[in-house]
Write a structure and sequence with these properties.
206 residues; alpha/beta; disordered N terminus
């Protein structure tokens, strides 16, 4: 019965979202407390209602077990705001996380109709900035979500990205860092130093 109710809830909410030009125009009290996947199904048929419902239930259980609240929002309209601004405003609009902890996260997937791309941004509440700093949020996007999106695996990209965010938020994420991410600057610096010494040596030979 609960699953039937959840499905009907998503169906009617979806109709509401389609009718709205901007999700931020929907009063915050109209969003159910157990809604963790806000979407506009008119723009992306790659996400099945079964998948959306499953993700919502999973994030609801995660919130109950940890108090950290992670929500997904997929839209084709960010109300004139940048992805960063929209995700942050939506985080505040839903009031995600515990008020005293500010431990909410929003995973935004924005379908850009102009260039047919899906832009991704992760907004993190102040209470989780230590667990999910900007550099780690970017790595989740670049190393997990975007590669799957490029292969057309949109559900896998969202699912695996959420798993990484969940693990990060509770300190259990063992990140496989691409060595180039951490050593690029160091290698560039060493190359510059070696070039300097080489040029100095050449000038002395003349």
């Amino acid at each position: 019965m609960n699953k039937i109710f959840s499905f009907l809830l998503f169906f009617f909410l979806s109709l509401t979202f389609i009718a709205q030009d901007c999700l931020l125009d929907i009063p915050s009290e109209d969003f159910p407390e157990d809604l963790f996947f806000a979407h506009n199904p008119s723009f992306d048929t790659k996400l099945s209602s079964v998948f959306i419902n499953h993700v919502n239930e999973d994030l609801e259980k995660f919130a109950l077990n940890t108090s950290n609240q992670i929500a997904v929002v997929t839209v084709n309209n960010t109300c004139g705001f940048s992805n960063n601004q929209f995700a942050t405003k939506f985080l505040e609009h839903l009031g995600l996380g515990q008020k005293e902890k500010s431990n909410g996260v929003v995973l935004l997937v924005h379908f850009n109709e102009e260039n047919k791309t899906r832009d991704v941004y992760i907004a993190v509440g102040k209470g989780l900035n230590g667990a999910i700093p900007d550099i780690k949020a970017k790595r989740v996007i670049q190393n997990i979500i975007v590669p799957r999106f490029k292969k057309g695996n949109f559900q896998a990209g969202i699912r695996d990205g959420l798993e990484a965010l969940k693990s990060l938020s509770i300190g259990e994420y063992n990140e496989k860092v691409n060595p180039s991410d951490d050593y690029t600057s160091l290698i560039l610096f060493l190359c510059i130093v070696l070039l300097f010494f080489y040029l100095s040596y050449r000038s002395r030979q003349k």
